[in-house]
Amino acid sequence: MATTTDKLIIFDTTLRDGEQSPGVTLNTEEKLEIARQLSRLGVDVLEAGFPVASPGDFNAVQRIAREVGPLMEGRTGAGRVNQEMVICGLARSVKADIQTAFDAVKDAPRHRIHVFLATSDIHLEFKLKISRAQCIERITDTVSFAKSLCKDIEFSPEDAGRSDRAFLCEALAAAINAGATTLNIPDTVGYNTPSEYGDLIKHLKENTPGADGVIFSTHCHNDLGLATANTLAGVSNGARQVEVTINGIGERAGNTSLEEVVMNVHTHPLSYPVHHTINTRLFFSTSRMVEDLSGMAVQANKAIVGRNAFLHESGIHQDGVLKNKQTYEIIRPEDVGVTTGNLALGKHSGRHAFKTKLDDLGYAAPALSDAQFQAAFAKFKDLADSKKAGVTDGDMHALVADVRSSTLAVSGHAVTPPVTSTDPVPEDDNEKAASSSAASESAPRFTLKHLQVFTGLGITPTATVTLFDSVRGTEITDVALAQNGPIEATFSAIQRIIGIEIQLLNFNVAATSEGQDTLGKVAVRIARATEAEEKEGGDGSSSSLAPSGAVAKFSGLATNVDIITASANAYIAAVNRMAGHDESENRASHKSRNVDI
Ligand code: KIV
Ligand code: ZN
C-alpha cells in the first residue's frame, strides 16, 4: 500500500536501557532469542547493548550483529520494513568505548554507533566535572572518531530534557558537523510534560544549524507516567525515530513502551503524520517472551499487552461487545496477537492443529526451533491427556515459555564464535569456548527424575528429590525437611544435591487459565547466597550503565498441573542457567572490564 506519510523509525532498546531495569539480567542466549523476535516484529534499529560494559556484553552484541543482523524472516512483503535490522551499540563519549562498540556491531550488514554525553548543567558540573566548552570539544572529537569508523552515527545529549536550550542547539550542531546522522533527545529522568517535550523537539529542529539533514529521535522515561504521551508529542513535532522498549521496561519506572506508541500511530493515522512497518500481530507473544525472560511481570491492566486489556467484565460492556465489538473495543484483539475465541485443543489434536494454533498465537516458525517445537508438542500431548476440558490459549503460551526456559537453560552455557584478533576476548579463550560449546549445548546440567513430597496439616513437610547430573553422568537423591511448606522442602533437597547455597529472590505462581484443571506457571529468580549477601546494601559505586558490579541473578520458569513439580522444574531451570553462567564467567573473568560512567 503506497503511503505518503513519513516512516516512523522504531528503535528498540529493550536489550540495553530495558536490561537496566532493576533485577533484570539476561544471558547471551536470552538476548539472542529476544533479538530474533524483535527482528521478526519488524524493529528498524536494535540497540543490542553497551559493549564496553563487560566481555559478556561485548559477546552478546557481537553475536546479535552476526547472527540476527542478517535475518530477513518476517521482514519482507507489503507493509513490512524490507531491510535488515540495524544493529546498534552504545558508547560513552570516549574513544575506547566507541572502538569497542564498533568492533561489536561491525559484522551486521547494517550497523550504527550510538554516542552519548550529558549536556545539562547539573550533569556537567557534578557528574562529568567539565565546562560547556569542554563538552562541545568532546562531542566534536568523539563523534568525528565514530564517523571515521561507521557512517551511521547517533548522538544523544543525555538529560536533554533539563539542558539549556541554546547550549543544546550548540551541542547538537557540533554533533552534526562531526558526522552524526541521528540526534536523539533523551528526557533521561522523565521530567518533561508532553507540551514541553513536543516544544523542545520543535525548537531544536528549528534552531539547530544543519538540523534539516538529520533525523530527530525521542527517548522518554516514564517517571511521571508520561513516556508514551511525551514520545507522541515528539512525533507530532517532527521526531521521526522513537526509542522504546517492549512492555516499557527500563531504569526506574521504565522507558516508553513500543507497543503503546505503535498502536497509537496505528489507531490514529490521521492524527500522526507517520506510518510504521511493525507486525503488530506479534505484540502479545513478544510481550510474553520479554516478561518470561526478564522476570519483569506485565501489570494486568497495561495497555495493549496486559492480560485484562481486552476483557470486558461489566454486563453492560459484555452485552455491547456481543452486539457489536466496536461499542467497547478500539483495537481488534487479533491485531495485537490476542486470541479471544480460545478454541481449546484436545488430546486428539495432531501436530498440524498444534502448529496452526502456535501460528495464531504468534509463534510461527522460526519463533520456535525444530527441537523446541518437538518438545512443546510432547508436553502438549501429556497435558492434553490430563486436561479433559482441553488445552487453552493461556496453557499454550505457558507451554511455549516452559519449553523456552528449559532449552535456554541448556544453551545458557556461553557459546562463543571465533572472533578477530582485535576483539577484546583473547583467541585462546574463544578456542576453549568453541570446544566446550558442543558439550554444553547437548544437555541441561540437572534434570528432575523423581519427586515425592509429604505435606499436610500438622505434618513437617518432607521432599525426596532425584536429579540426573549430566556432568557426573549419575542420578543423585536427597531428602529435606522444612518448616515453611513443601516448596521450601523441595528447594532445600535440590540445594543439598547440587551443593550450592541459593537465595530465592522471587517466587511467583500463576494459573494459566480458568477452572480447576488449570496449569500452575511458576517463575523463580535466584542468586548464589554468598554473592547476594556480600552485595547487600552495596556501596553505590557501580554506574547506572555498568551492570558488572551487580549480583548475578538467574530466572527459571515451568508449568505443570502440579505446582510443586512446576516449582521444582522452574528452580532447576534457574540452577542450570547459573551453571552455564559460572562456566562462561570462569572463561572470561580475567578479562572482566569495570566501566565507571
Ligand atoms: O536515558 C538516557 O539518557 C539514555 C542515554 C544513554 C541515551 O538512556
Ligand atoms: Zn534512557
Automatic annotation (TrEMBL):
<protein>
    <submittedName>
        <fullName>2-isopropylmalate synthase (Alpha-isopropylmalate synthase) (Alpha-IPM synthetase)</fullName>
        <ecNumber>2.3.3.13</ecNumber>
    </submittedName>
</protein>
<keyword id="KW-0808">Transferase</keyword>
<keyword id="KW-0012">Acyltransferase</keyword>
